[in-house]
Every structure is written in C-alpha cells, then in structure tokens.
Amino acid sequence: MPLPxxxxxxxxxxxRDKYALVGVGETTYTRGSGKTTRALGxxxxxxxxxxxxxxPSDVDGMMSYQSGDSTFGPFIAGDLGMRLNFYMDxxxxxxxxxxxxxxxxxxxxxxxCKTVVIFRAMNGFSQVRIGGTGARxxxxxxxxxxxxxxxxxxxxxxxxxxxxxxxxxxYGTKPEQVATVKAIHSEHAGNNPKAFYKEKVxxxxxxxxxxxxxxxxxxxxxxxxxxxxxxxxxxxxxARDCRHPRVLIRGVVGRCNKPRMDMHYQHGPISTVAGxxxxxxxxxxxxxxPEDVDLTGSYDAFTFTTMLQxxxxxxxxxxxxxxxxxxxxxxxxxxxxxxxSGGHLCEGYTHGLNxxxxxxxxxxxxxxxxCPIGPDGKRQHTYDYRPGGCRQVxxxxxxxxLGWASPGTGSAMVMRNE
Amino acid sequence: xxxxxxxxxxPLEINDLDVENLAYFKHCAAHDFHLQRCRKxxxxxxxxxxxxxxxxxxxxDWVPVEGKGAVHSYTExxxxxxxxxxxxxxxxxxxxxxxxxxxxxSEHEALRVVGNLATADxxxxxxxxxxxxxxxxxxxxxxxxxxxxxxxPHWTIDESAVQPAKPWRYPQE
Lengths: 418, 173
Prior knowledge:
heterodimer, A: 418 residues, 9-stranded mixed β-sheet, 13 helices, B: 173 residues, mainly beta, 5-stranded antiparallel β-sheet, 3-stranded antiparallel β-sheet, 3 helices, 36% strand, globular
C-alpha cells in the first residue's frame, strides 16, 4: 500500500493542483423524465455554469460521453448560446468521468480552450436501459459479441459476475459483507433529498432479495434512472474568480486497464481489477496515499465494484475488501465515508458523474443535505447523521473517486480543498 | 462466406470480412475445436484475434486443441436478459481453464474459454446439472449446431474425469 512516505512528494508532479473543478450541476434523478437527453443535458450544464458563477459565454470547451444513448455537445452549446473553441463527444460509460477531467486539463494546457464543461445526459430507465434489456437485447450478435452475447452473457452484472465469484472463492468474501455496501449507501441516501431511493435497506433485505445472477441479488445492483449531470474544469488561477472555494485536482487516472483488453479474463488473477494498475499512477501523481484520503467515491454499479476498487487501490490489504466495506469505515461518521450521496445504488445512475459532483460539494463543505441555511447563505451543518439529517463529512480535505467500467478498466481522481 | 443465422432467438451474423470468426466457427461446426497458434512465438490464443497478444505477430495457424478443462469461475443466471434464455433459467455461464497452455506464458494466464453448461447435444443443461457444477468442476467441450459453418461451443460435465470432492459454489444456497 503506497503510504505518503513511499511516494514522491518532493516536486510538483505533472499538473498537480494546477486545475480545479469549479462548477457542478444536475437535473432531478427520476424514472420517466418526460424530457429528451438534449433537454436533460442543457438543464445540467446550465446548473453547473450557474453554480460556478459563470456565464455560458465564459465556457468555451465541452466534452461528453455516451453509449449511443444521448445527445451531442453542439446541441447543448447551441441551446445555451455557447460558441465553443473545443468539443469532443466520446464513447464509453463508467470510467469516463475522471478520464475526461484529465483530457480537459490537457486541452486547456494545450491552449485549445480555457474552461471545459463535461456532461452526461441519459434516460437510463425510460429510453435506453442500462441493464441491456429492450433494444439492446434485440440487436444482431456479431464480431466479439459472438463470444459473449451468444451465451446469454450480456448485461453488466452477467459480464462482471465471474470476477465477483472468484473473489469470494479466493478470499472467502461473504455475501453479507458485500451487502453492507448497499445498506450503508442507503443510509447516506436517506440524508440526500435528491436521491431516487431514500429508504433504508438492511443487509438482510439485500440477502433476501431475489438472485439476478450469482452472486448478485437484486439489491446488489444499482438503480436505473433518467438524469443529466455536469462538471466544469478550469485552471486553478481562473478558479479564484469563481463562486465557491477552490477544489483542486491532485491527480487523474483515465481508463487504465488490466492486460488482455480484448477479454480481460484471459489474464488473472480475475479477482483483481484495473485499480491494481491504476494505483501506481494515482498515488504518485497525487502525492498522497490512501491513508490521507478523507472520503471516497468508489463506483457502485454493484456492491462488489465498490469493494474491489477500494481493495485494489490499496485502502485495505488485498483480499480484505469484505472486511473493509462492512466494518463501519465507509459509513458517515466513520473513518472514510464512501458515496455519501447514496451513489448509483441509491441516488441515481449517471455513469459516475454524480459521485464526482458529491465529492466536490463535500470538499466545499457545502453538501446539499437538509441542514438549515444560515444568514450568510451557507448551510449550517450539524454533523448529526441520523436519518433525514446531515451528510457533510466533517473537516474533509482530500477525496478519491474510483470510476469503474469493468473489472478490466477503471479511472480515478484525487481532489483536495485548501 | 457470410453467415446469417438464428440461435436461441438471437440473430447471429458473421460477415465476409470477419475471417477470424468464420474460421473459428467453421471448426466448431465440424465439432473439432481449433484455436490460432502464433507462427512466431507458438502460443495459442482465445478468443480469435488479428494478431498475437504476446508478440504482436500477425500470422497464425488454426490448430486442433483438446476441449477439456476445469471451471475457473462462473455465474448462475436467474434473471435472463435475452427472451429465449428466460425459459432456460437458471443457466450457467462458465469460464473454463483449458488444460492446454494453463499457467502459460505466466502463472496467472490460461486459455479461458466461455460456454454455457450444456448436455452432450449442446442444449442448455437442466437444473439438476446446474446445481452440480462450480469452480473446479471438470468439463469437456460440446457443440450446439446452428447453421452450416456455425456451431456454438459449450461445456458439459466430464463424466469420465476425476471430479473434485466438492466444487466451490456460491455460499448462500
């Protein structure tokens, strides 16, 4: 595990602390948005621009990611009257957010534009369903799909399950340990007025829910929702002119992979995921180690994905993930809370972007819970984490986001406040 | 020649340009499993690729490979996505370590060949067989015939092999 003493903090590494996240925005998290992805995208981007204290004309770069299920940057820019000096719409899902933050830093560094908004807009329940049902299941099977879909091996849960099973086999990880991820995230969602699922779920509820594909119960799987989400990246200097205290980017990992990217199961151990490789980039570039991190956003497409990433990025010893996620560490009030918004399991499914939004608000010490707003317009956090209460992590300074595309591919980002 | 067929309600398509998959499934249709062997480093590879994953060499030969191995991991699907699989649930998706080239070229590598648990004729296995299989179960390859030039390789319990006393199964059963 790379502790601070093991990593090179002697010189500024790459672009450490030179870029900032200055704006975050989102729509509601719903099922049945009644809106196009274009309308969701422009709503979220407008909110992010307003949150940053900017005008649309101040933002001259735009990036988005999708999987054939969303609108494109030029339409959002047109709707909001933005003339862009740079835009890029890329293909991909869960490991995109952090990767695109890194790319935004690169294009600004190259002088191609000054400020970039990144959005993801999706009707993940009412149009193209993430679970792979409907139109996706009916598509012809060809090329590499002949070696997966032909076997009824298609949905994300089905594709990832062999890694999850093998982790239980290799390390004795128990279903009730992993189910705790959902229980804890549901508690967090109870303090998030935006969350799609706010009800508390117990470990027993998870274990008693029906099996989707072993080892996944229904409640080990995330929610499908309709939503738009957006974040704004600019230089640390320009960030001084924005509305909120600065949240600086320490280091980024973008779509880092295990070997055999055509079919990662060819190269084991299959109970190890891409974070095993990503951590060798994340911690040295960030100049911190896991012990310095106050809160995490470990992608919870499934309860298992949260556990596997925390483990392989070194938050615990390899194989101890089941213990780490169930010993209270990642609960609000614990040593290192994870997905304080409720994440994909409870708040809503956005392919990772909402977990970055949450950590930006946490690092501003201005998370949008139900605590009263004081005369200065800032929320007066109580740090009483009982249901319906506060979800601000007290005195947090450093966060880590761990994005997941598959066992073989992941992204990550460390941010800090000042 | 291009193949258009239907298998378990799914349209399967292999076009003329996809020579690797055409060759792979042609051998399956003959119930004679073949994989590509690199002409330079001599390593076998799965699934079909256009170059060698270990040495990047572009030339390969299709060679017969014994369809025997042990289950490396699996999932048991209860909620099927594709309509035709719903009637067959629960079904197993197996990732099988072939005996051939296991642990090569490095300790954690193997030719891990996907398939459903099937009966000897290549149809998806009934529930009593699904319950018997776990990590470590010895299996042998069988084929589901789909169309001329196309059969899907699957796995069936190898009744002639020495089986582990108790294959590893998901604990909550």
